[in-house]
Every structure is written in structure tokens, then in C-alpha cells.
Design goal:
Blueprint lengths: L25 E5 L4 E5 L6 E3 L6 H13 L3 E3 L3 E5 L5 E5 L4 H36 L10 H10 L1 E6 L5 E5 L7 E4 L6 E9 L4 H6 L5 E7 H15 L6 H14 L2 H11 L11 H43 L4 H12 L1
Helix pairs in contact: 2-6, 5-8, 6-7, 6-8, 7-8
């Protein structure tokens, strides 16, 4: 089981409350659907856990939730805090909109508050040299800082050939989502720098070392899930979150939303210039679509295991049936 967040790569923490699943400080579970997530306490994103490790943990989380005297619940979603400080989020049968709002609203509004605080600090740092004019050249002290921030790597992506690459802050404005002749109907184009060493090498790399890649289908969605949080660093209000959720519902789901987005903004293929609710909706759709594809892979494995078990069971059953009875069954089945 992984111990770091799949998105921000921070430590997910440990707990001693859930014996069958000692990872994570905030666990979300849906007993009816058989799903268990670890909610990262830093970036607030939901990490879907592997199939083979979740069943006993879900039952244990359900017992802890029911045994906790202090909990907050609506008809569909509940929140309980255990003595150790571990939080359990119990998913009942919510509407998709309610579930999406519960999942994204707090993270995006908190991101908005964090950005406002950082913006105030940066503003003070930038304004200070302008005030202290008695020092020669003091009004240029912030230029190297801003230059370095624009060149810092903000995301690591996987190229189609399997190699790792980095995307710099200054290249986020060049990310494009446009219509394509690919079967998925859309493509994601972005600039990257080859992962050739530590982060400072990426910062010092020249534009001659920059490449361009066009991604399709699942690769485009997975990469968008890494890039869009950086483009949406300012967060959002609750109203903007609801607008984004409505856009996904109107499109018919996360998968169709990516395919229909180029038609919504035919003159704005650069993602940075798209309206904020639309960018937020793309971020939500990217995460949900990646999770859906992961679940489809698990279901395919389950189906393969079921067919193998069924074949073995059929062979075992035939061992107990005399040949004359089996012939009689085949004869009447043909009729």
C-alpha cells in the first residue's frame, strides 16, 4: 500500500484506530459500493485504495463510525472523529452533486484562503524594496526571486514513451485543450523539460531543451489532473464550485465533459484563459475520470478471476456427475 499522496507526494500519515488499514488520518468509505479513499490532509485530494486492501478496512470503519457517539450526519454523508483524531467520512447514497460538492468545496475554498494569504506576503516582499529607496538598486531585489519562481518545476508528468518530464511554472500558460481527430475527441498539448536531474537543473534549463508533447485519452486526463491544480491555485468560492459541478452534469459526466469543452470555448484553446468555473470543472472531471478508469481496471480483474473460478467450479462439479447423467443433460439442453 502506498504511503504518500498520489497528487502532492506528501506523507499520508498513520493511524492506530483502524487495525486493518493503519495509513491515513482521514478515511472516506462507501460500504455499498465497496470503495475506500485516503484523504490527504495537505492537498485535500482523495486517493483511491487498492481493491485487495479495502474490504475488511471498510467494515472496521463502519463499526468505528457507528460506535462513535459524536458524529455529524446528513441523509447521505456523515463525519465522525475518533479519539485518536482520525476522521471518518461515511458515504451513503448521495446525489452526485452533493457528493462532488462535499468532496471538492472545502479543498478549493481552503486553497483560495491560502492563496490570498500568500499573495499578501508576496505583495509585502515586492513593495518593501520600493519603499526603502535609500538603498541603491533596492527596487530590483525582487526581480531574481520572481524570475526563479517562474522557472521552478511545478509538476512531473509521464511522457508516452514512459520517461519522466517536468513542467515549469512559466509554461502553464501554454497548456492547450483542443479538439482532435482522436477517438476521444480531444487532445492536451503542453511544453516540458526532460527530467535530467534535481529540480535546480530544470530551473536552469534553456528553452532549447524544452519539448512539446500532445496527449490523448487517458494520458491527457491523467496529466490534466496534475496540471490543473496549479492553474487553479487561486481556489474558488462555493458558488463557483457549484457552477463547475453543474457544467459536468450538463455534459453528461466527466468523460463527456473533456470531449465537449473545446466546443464551449472554440476561440480559447489555452486553458489559462478559460473561465474559472470551467477550469475548476476540468480539474474535477480529470480526477473523477482517472478514478473511474482505475475502477474499470479492478472490475476487469474481478471478472477474469470470476471466470477462472467458474471454470474450476464447473470441472469440479463434473467429477461428481456420472457420464450417463451428463449425456442426458446435453441431450435435453440441445432440445
Amino acid at each position: 500500500m502506498y504511503g504518500t499522496c498520489l497528487y502532492c507526494h506528501r506523507d499520508l500519515g498513520n493511524n492506530e484506530s483502524v487495525e486493518n488499514f493503519p495509513i491515513g488520518r482521514r478515511l472516506a468509505f462507501d460500504q455499498a459500493m465497496g470503495r475506500l479513499w485516503i484523504v490527504c490532509t495537505r492537498c485535500r485530494r482523495w486517493n483511491l485504495t487498492p481493491l485487495e486492501e479495502r474490504w475488511e478496512a471498510i467494515e472496521e470503519c463502519e463499526r468505528h463510525f457507528c460506535d462513535t457517539p459524536t458524529r455529524y450526519s446528513t441523509e447521505n454523508i456523515g463525519l465522525a472523529r475518533l479519539d485518536e483524531g482520525v476522521e471518518l467520512v461515511r458515504i451513503g447514497k448521495p446525489e452526485r452533486r452533493e457528493f462532488a460538492f462535499w468532496r471538492y468545496a472545502k479543498r478549493l475554498t481552503q486553497r483560495r484562503q491560502t492563496y490570498a494569504a500568500l499573495d499578501a506576503v508576496v505583495g509585502m516582499v515586492v513593495a518593501l524594496p520600493l519603499v526603502v529607496t535609500s538603498v541603491p538598486g533596492s527596487n530590483l531585489l525582487y526581480v531574481p526571486i520572481m524570475y526563479a519562481l517562474s522557472r521552478r518545476p511545478v509538476a512531473r508528468i509521464t511522457l508516452p514513451d514512459g520517461t519522466m518530464a517536468s513542467v515549469r511554472q512559466s509554461d502553464l500558460s501554454l497548456v492547450q485543450l483542443h479538439r482532435s481527430g482522436h477517438e476521444e475527441g480531444f487532445a492536451l498539448t503542453l511544453k516540458y523539460y526532460s527530467e535530467s536531474g534535481p529540480w535546480w537543473r530544470v530551473m536552469l534549463a534553456s528553452r532549447a531543451q524544452r519539448g512539446t508533447v500532445r496527449l490523448y485519452g487517458a494520458e491527457a486526463v491523467r496529466t490534466a489532473g496534475l496540471i490543473l491544480p496549479r492553474l487553479n491555485a487561486k481556489g474558488a468560492s462555493s458558488r463557483q464550485v457549484r457552477q463547475a459541478i453543474d457544467m459536468i452534469d450538463e455534459a453528461g459526466g466527466p468523460k463527456r465533459f473533456f470531449a465537449t469543452t473545446p466546443d464551449r470555448t472554440p476561440r480559447r484553446t489555452w486553458v489559462v484563459y478559460m473561465p474559472r468555473p470551467l477550469r475548476l470543472a476540468l480539474e474535477m472531471a480529470a480526477h473523477e475520470e482517472s478514478e473511474r478508469r482505475a475502477l474499470e481496471g479492478e472490475l476487469a480483474e474481478l471478472e477474469a478471476a470470476w471466470r477462472e473460478a467458474e471454470e474450476i467450479a464447473a470441472i469440479a462439479d463434473r467429477l461428481l456427475i456420472p457420464p450417463t447423467i451428463e449425456e442426458w443433460i446435453k441431450k435435453h439442453r440441445r432440445r
